[in-house]
Design goal:
homodimer; alpha+beta; Glycosyltransferase; Immunoglobulin-like; 18 helices; 34% helix; globular; disordered N terminus
């Protein structure tokens, strides 16, 4: 039986919390992307939600739209229409971050209209779910396993917190706090309460966010309850089994076969492997990490750390995406990393950024921050077109030319997810602790932080990720002693640190991949960082058969790929030379990032038969690579991340 | 509108028919395998059929077993229990060929018992289908699209013909002839007749077989009707649409979305691409080729030849399997040939042998015979374990060690299919025409053939496929002039032909890859053939991305693979050297065939991380390959057909 108490606080380091989005003003690489989200994507998201009929479903004074999206073939309990509240919640969240960047009265009015509809929809007792109140009344709380009921609540909560931070308006926050109170009355260990938890984790991390925003501990307690209860078998029965029988259904008549799909097969503290649906997994682990941080609960660490290792050592795409399978939108088995059929849902890479960020809540550790950066700049960012209007859902690492971003998708979870991540990127750059500030990511920005009882402004000046030089300037409101921990990216083979012009040996101050500088900081103190950023070739473990004889190119945090528009057809006929160097080049239409150019070979066969005895001939050719996340922004064509490479003999 | 008439007989060459199985006695490579089928597999097949409950369903005097296998999830009109008649038909067919090889009174008695049950089940009007008569009465002919109704009839017909040839017993044949007459009364262009055709082609080729065995032309007419009617839209309506509406269902509520799945989307003469379910496709094309041959109907040739080209030029695995996708058990798009997930159903390779053999009905052409041989020795034969008791359903070209043959399968179509093919292999060796005998395949054997009005015994003495020398001895009952056409395998770079000791230049007599020897043949005439059989490396077209930088090894008709039991783990870490030679070696447990051994490299990384900057080092190592069709007969381990190979610089 699992020990629920937070017995291991002595083992925990200082508690790190991310700054709220309004504390960090971002320019540089992400600035224009936030601008695009604020001016274009936010409106697009709301347009698409409303065009789909979502406001008709939410607003109780509008005619009931009824069932618009049929129940899914083969999974007769779910319609994506059940998720509409979450689509609104995430879209409002993304739009709210946009408002922080750039006030927009029209956008704010649109959100106020939606919030008002939710306010009028909310049940007297605080319940709020447009599907169950308008489309399937009488069924609330009857199928937590499948129907995303608390998931919807979580995303609305996150939207409400963001809107509050962006505008100071409390209405949405109050609505969601009432709903959270109602949920806390329904779910819990008390008599007559349900000992259930959502089939799609999300409420856990959302309640922590709500608790942090309102200062109310009871929301943190509810988050912890959901984490602790998951996968238990009180009286020998799993909640979902019991719930199915109460619906008159056979528990084993379940489309996804086992509860690994929702990581609820065993209690979370006993789990050691990443399994099931990828986004559910990463949202759950995010919630677990948040609960661990907030309660100083070290009993969650073995699961978190081991699962993290299982994911990153054996199941992560080089782009930071994960979950190869379309069938369960998730995991299959170790080293199963096919390229052309990679599912690698955008939401999964986004969720990995969320999880990594929360692991940093336990203290700076490059193991988490490096992966956060990899997922952010590659597997997540690829989900958004440069013009902010089109989106990828699944993200292969190879394409024959027919994989393109969507204008919209019948399950539109990914667009607002990548939008809200990018628009709130400031919150991921830093961690604030009692006597320490951690710098996790580099981007031209100004942050108003707090530590050691003082306000500290930190300005970053940098052209990252195009170049690896960063100048940080500190302005504490008065001189104060604290630790500034600077991440030294694992990909950089050579790091130079200067503090106020004086060179510092990184080896002397490095801890878990961060340079920890503890001193009395004064206004005007500055640090110059130089991260060597060579073009690098990555090799995959031999157990990833499809990547053998190939390399993935990276430069700094950016993973690169070949596109047909630059290199012609049959990208698999291209071969890199063993020692060839790369030069950076300007190419239009790839967001101002450098392309990499080298000389390699193209293999040409004299035969166009399917199989032939004659080996192809090699012809020298220029090979041009662009950052993976910008692919499919120019003309149609093939794409390839893992490029054939001749071995060095 | 398609021209149905057989207007192009002037374009057709002589009509070739395969000898019946009793005309050819096979030894050599296939002899022991036929022995195994006769003594073991035939019994195993009947055991499994009966253990599944099939005889309980067929025998009207046994208690009704009811629905034993639920309707399929997602396809609520089909249960594999509907196919039981076909499983019996094919198993009886395989067993019948076994009886020809080796009389077995016990086996014969088992078949008689089953035939007797069918006889007692048969409706007065001739209808015979154990599912519709015993499990779902009142539903006959209501769902041709899904329910395999005529498919079952076809396999029972094939079984009946084989049993007749094996034993001289007419009972089963008469039963099936009565059923065929009944089907002919139900289906046809006349008033009150149904203009339907089966969703799973099979009846077409079976009716041709029945017509040839009984001499009754009306069965050939019915086969032609089904071929001609397929995909038509009389009065603008597709038969399956109309049939669905008559069942009260929406035609578009169809699990497989389009009628490409059953190659009935457009009339067959208009088709130019291989699409849909692989086995359905190849059975249909087999039936079309038979109808073309029997009626001298050249109007089917453009479709047949173009579809053949589409399959073999862009959609065929090097093993002769096809159909990469598990979802539709069939085709997806050109050059989609993934290795680890290849579906390549055993039945599909078997059906390709059937189709190729029937294309040869239009005359000898190496284009068809080479593919027939490739599919036979690799993609089909792999479906049967060396001991004859275990079976593959799907056949990847790469495995991590968890893909194994089945003892049985809930859809047991493949075991009796590969068994009946192997046990009747004699019929594929030759084609008989008016003044010509074609030799398509080489195997130690004695055949009693007929041409130019004379009986001709042909003896082949050969260790093929271990060696490429073949000695043929002819014994016409008296001297007679005819053409003997000898296939010159496309894989052989050098061919020597001696007739009665005199060397003959192949170039002078070659036509479509056959050496055509027209002369007055006398008893004792002999031909020595020497086919050079070097180890060869095949390269795949650049559009098959996963095979680039790799080769498939073949020697003669056998395609080779690496197995973990010979080479250790991580087969994708092995690299062939550019010019390395191979030696043949004896290895236990691989059916007496040669293994191929060479020196190559194993790549070893100093890191076991998932991704690393350090390139692996190469260490020389012995690499041992075995024939693909014998894999998974020894210890568990990985398997790999497309092996990495260093380019020649």
């Amino acid at each position: 039986m699992t020990n629920f108490s937070s017995a291991n606080s002595a083992h925990l380091a200082a508690k790190f919390r991310p700054p709220s989005v309004d504390q960090v003003r971002v320019g540089g690489f992400f600035g224009p992307r936030i601008e695009t989200i604020a001016t274009t994507t936010a409106h697009t998201l709301l347009d698409r939600c409303i065009a789909a009929g979502m406001l008709d479903q939410v607003d109780p004074d509008r005619p009931n739209p009824g069932l618009r999206i049929p129940f899914q073939n083969g999974n007769d309990t779910v319609s994506t229409q059940m998720f509409w509240d979450s689509d609104f919640g995430k879209s409002i969240e993304a739009a709210a971050y946009g408002l922080l960047h750039k006030p927009d009265a029209a956008l704010e009015a649109r959100i106020d209209e939606i919030v008002d509809a939710y306010g009028r929809l909310q049940d007297e007792n605080g319940y709020l779910n447009s599907w169950y109140q308008r489309i399937e009344p009488g069924k609330r709380w009857t199928n937590l396993r499948d129907c995303h009921e608390l998931y919807n609540a979580g995303h609305l909560m996150e939207g409400a917190v963001a809107y509050y931070h962006a505008t100071g308006k409390r209405r949405f926050l109050d609505i969601m706090a009432r709903y959270a109170d109602h949920i806390a009355s329904i779910f819990g260990p008390g008599d007559g309460q349900k000992r259930g938890y959502c089939g799609h984790p999300e409420i856990e991390l959302a309640l922590v966010k709500l608790g942090r925003a309102t200062g109310e501990r009871r929301y943190l307690d509810l988050a912890r309850f959901f984490v602790d209860e998951r996968g238990q078998r009180p009286n020998g029965q799993h909640y979902y089994d019991r719930e199915a029988r109460e619906r008159g259904r056979d528990p084993s008549d379940y489309h996804f076969a086992t509860y690994e799909y929702s990581q609820s097969h065993i209690p979370v503290r006993d789990q050691r492997h990443v399994v099931g649906h990828a986004v559910r997994a990463a949202y759950l682990y995010s919630g677990m990490a948040d609960v661990s941080t907030e309660f100083g609960d070290g009993s969650l660490k073995p699961a978190l750390e081991t699962i993290w290792g299982h994911l990153t050592d054996k199941n992560l795409y080089v782009t930071g995406g994960f979950g190869p399978s379309a069938h369960n939108e998730g995991l299959t088995f170790d080293y199963d990393l096919p390229n052309e059929t990679a599912y690698a849902e955008t939401c999964a890479a986004v969720a990995l950024v969320f999880w990594a960020s929360r692991m940093l809540g336990l203290g700076p550790d490059r193991a988490y921050a490096d992966v956060m950066e990899r997922a952010l700049y590659n597997g997540a960012l690829v989900g958004l077109s440069l013009d902010g209007t089109q989106f990828f859902y699944d993200n292969p690492l190879e394409s024959r030319g027919k994989h393109h971003r969507w204008t919209w998708h019948r399950c539109p979870c990914c667009p607002p997810n990548i939008a809200r991540l990018v628009a709130s990127i400031g919150t991921y750059l830093y961690g604030e602790a009692q006597d320490e500030i951690a710098v996790h990511l580099y981007c031209d920005s100004v942050a108003e932080l707090k530590t050691a009882g003082v306000a500290v402004r930190i300005r970053q000046e940098t052209a990252y990720p195009v170049e690896g030089s960063v100048r940080l300037t500190l302005e504490p409101e008065h001189a104060a002693e604290f630790t500034l921990s600077l991440r030294l990216p694992g990909w950089s083979p050579q790091v130079t640190i200067r503090v106020n012009g004086e060179v510092l040996d990184p080896a002397g101050v490095e801890e878990k991949g961060y340079a920890k500088l503890t001193r009395l900081w004064q206004a005007g103190d500055h640090i110059e960082l130089e991260f060597a950023m060579p073009v690098q070739r990555l090799y995959a473990n031999a157990k990833v058969g499809v990547d053998q004889g190939r390399v993935a190119l990276q430069r700094g945090p950016l993973v690169y790929c070949l596109e047909g528009v630059d290199n012609g057809e049959d990208l698999n006929a291209l071969v890199l030379q063993p020692q060839s160097g790369f030069r950076c080049e300007v190419v239009d239409g790839i967001g101002g990032l450098p392309a990499l150019v080298t000389t390699g070979w193209r293999e040409k066969s004299e035969s166009d038969h399917l199989y032939t005895l004659s080996a192809p001939q090699r012809v020298p050719t220029e090979i041009r690579a662009v950052p993976y996340h910008v692919w499919d922004n120019r003309d149609d064509g093939e794409m390839l991340v893992w490029i054939r490479a001749e071995a060095d003999q």
